[in-house]
């Protein structure tokens, strides 16, 4: 970068012979113009670009749902700009070309609440899933009234997370049940997490899946 004060180009702006001329305050500067990328669609660049539309599409589907509130809260906890930016930061790596989504690595919920210990699915079929866990009630990050919540993505709607409505179970219960709605799906991806009774805190999620056959 060069300072052009006192030269015949002092006060000029724009591009000239491979340089960009611009002003900062009262001083005129010149720097080399960036080189045009000969091949802007290399394999790596194409793969990277393919991640963003998938992440954006899935985030849009969460608007107006409990998940949108989860992202707003966790973004505040982690001092990120917004729930949208938090979601991209957490999940860009799980999307790929040809509508690929690495569902087991997808983060659909997160936050400062603790998950119960030893959470596992003890029964799962096309109608419902049953979960069990060890009660770890202790402090504000794990209270007995924290309730089980389940988000689902069905394989026939691969970018459409939904929070299931018929879910029962609190942390102190040690077990919970979630009803799975019917439809033209063969596999459902389930993300189980906990929410505080006042809706101000949420936990990270644990992944499970269920197939009809």
From TrEMBL:
Region Disordered: which residues? 32-54
* InterPro entries linked: DUF6266 (IPR046233)
Q: Which domain of life is it from?
A: Bacteria
This chain belongs to which protein, by name? Answer: Uncharacterized protein
Can you name the source organism?
Answer: Butyricimonas hominis
